[in-house]
Design brief:
single chain, 248 residues, alpha+beta, Aminopeptidase, twelve-stranded mixed beta sheet, 7 helices, elongated
Length: 248
């Protein structure tokens, strides 16, 4: 295997796969990446991606599995393999001691802001001084969110307020790579759901990610079909992912 140190070479080796590029975080010290000798597989080991060490796997299974074995031997077992679901199923079959977990997917969009995104709306960036209010809102509306104020990698929050100035929806740019803006922590107050507020704040974050990074991306649970439909309506494409943990 060969370690990759240039982000452009990494992008070329994984054929521009946004998940790999996102996990690499620009190869700025938060992650490392390797390619198989035959250039048919890539593994990116990233620190603090959604609050966890993750090893994103890409490529043909017969090249990716032995590459992943070698990478894990180098970086340690704390890195949880993640990748396209069919590839992760092959990893589980070939590497003993692993169990599939999850049931989620990756969604992304690469074109310029425009079609499918809400026009106008009330979403806006929230000042850093409102972090405690955002924390209370996330704890109440989306307590399982990886993104919370003060968590390393969570960059800035957007929100929607009602006529009384109360937060009704929030979301964040978090763990963004230079060319992939990542959305996380999108939440709507339980009493304000089904009013299009998730679309407002989500559209605002997507437009910002496209403008700043060129690609907007997020992860979503398979069971959350409402969210998948919402983001598909804003031009993001869904693909199923898998992850594994070491059996105890």
């Amino acid at each position: 295997m060969r370690e990759l140190t240039d982000p452009g070479e990494l992008t070329a080796r994984c054929q521009g796969d946004a998940l790999c590029v996102w996990a690499a975080q620009g190869l700025d010290g938060r992650s490392r990446a390797w390619a198989s000798d035959d250039r048919r597989a890539v593994v990116v080991a990233g620190v603090n991606l959604l609050a966890r060490e993750r090893a994103v796997v890409w490529g043909a299974p017969d090249a990716a599995v032995p590459l992943l074995r070698r990478v894990v031997a180098e970086v340690g077992p704390a890195y949880r393999p993640l990748g396209e679901r069919a590839l992760i199923e092959a990893v589980v079959q070939e590497i003993p001691g692993l169990t599939s977990v999850g049931g989620f997917g990756w969604m992304d969009r690469h074109d310029a802001p425009g079609d499918g995104l809400p026009a106008g709306g009330e979403a806006a960036w929230l000042p850093a001084g409102e972090a405690e209010e955002v924390q209370r809102f996330v704890d109440m509306s989306f307590p399982d969110s990886y993104a919370k104020p003060g968590v390393p990698g969570v960059e800035r929050w957007a929100g929607v307020r009602d006529s009384a100035g109360r937060l009704t929806a929030v979301g964040a740019h978090a763990w963004c790579a230079p060319t992939v803006g990542f959305l996380s922590g999108v939440a709507v107050h339980p009493a304000a759901r089904r009013r299009g507020l998730g679309r407002q704040v989500g559209g605002f974050l997507i437009a910002g990610a496209l403008k700043t990074h060129g690609t907007a991306a997020l992860m979503v649970d398979d069971w959350n079909q409402a969210a998948i439909r919402l983001y598909e309506g804003m031009g993001l494409r869904y693909r199923p992912l898998g992850a594994v943990v070491v059996r105890k």
